């Protein structure tokens, strides 16, 4: 009897120890408040469009999200890790974290949550970790930790500009707002990532993205080269098999990223580089490059017939009473159909961030750069931006904020674009 009791006690203790070695954490950010702004676009033909927006909105300082993070100790300093994170909309509008609720032909609702991250991996103490799945890019990690605005979602930053496409809906008037155009890709799917632990002050990171589909498809000999193979087999394609005609059906997306994060005393220097490539089916009409059929890589979306290279270099120094920041970014999105057609954006920014009192934090940044919109022979415009903001920390997890930002794109033959945004809200992290 005593042996049985001892066995049960031992098994119970073992199960308790195993359970203690595995943990799941629920985390997130809820950010909501009031925001407003004005935009003015003047086209090359002299047509001016003005727009004013005011709304109760989401995520003006940080993207609202909820996530689950897990860690299981496998022994020997090795652990299994996972993260699943989705964007949320506390104010319920189509702001920066659209959830993609749509209806099918029968009117039934389809729910597609905005998955920010979904990956599984292994970590080894003393070495680093490896992850596979949908993940934030190395650029996103750098911009969040080593720029003045720390990924503020209000306009004004030149290194990590907000891309809330729902804020101004029609004020572009055909003019490209290069000042607040995306400077980098925020996250990628189909990605494997490696990162070292910090050794001698340095962290090294590398990631690789791949999603390839190659197909050869028959087409009608009379229309060979004009069928858009991305739509799948068509009647022309079926007829083309008999005629012996064929056309390429490649749909390949791949890319790699490198990053370094070096800390020396009170200084932090970070650098990231990425090169993404997309090869997609296209029609003869689409062979003329434009921003429509040549699309840059987005947040979790892969590009279309482009080579997309991105660079971000940032540095910060903690003076004690304030922290100073400086950075430079460059992006070129080049058509794979015509190397003379490209989008190019480069910018630099300086800023400071400081606690004015133990509970009041403030920051300010200013920057400028150059921007060329997509296409052959498109004009280059000067771009500018600045942002000021303040946090009132009610606790370590809850703060009130006020942010103002402004961006401008100088006048060219394509016109000019200027906008501003002001935001007041509350943010809670958990």
TrEMBL record:
Gene3D superfamilies: Porin (2.40.160.10)
Primary location class: membrane
Protein topology in the membrane: Multi-pass membrane protein
UniProt keyword terms in alphabetical order: Cell outer membrane, Ion transport, Membrane, Porin, Signal, Transmembrane, Transmembrane beta strand, Transport
Signal peptide annotation: 1-20
Any one GO cellular component localisation term in the record: pore complex
UniProt domain Porin: residue ranges: 7-284
Localization terms from the record: Cell outer membrane
GO molecular function: porin activity
Pfam families for the chain: Porin_4
A biological process from GO: monoatomic ion transport
Domain of life: Bacteria
Quaternary structure, from the entry: Homotrimer.
PANTHER family, per database record: MAJOR OUTER MEMBRANE PROTEIN P.IA, PROTEIN YDDL-RELATED
Name of this protein: Porin domain-containing protein
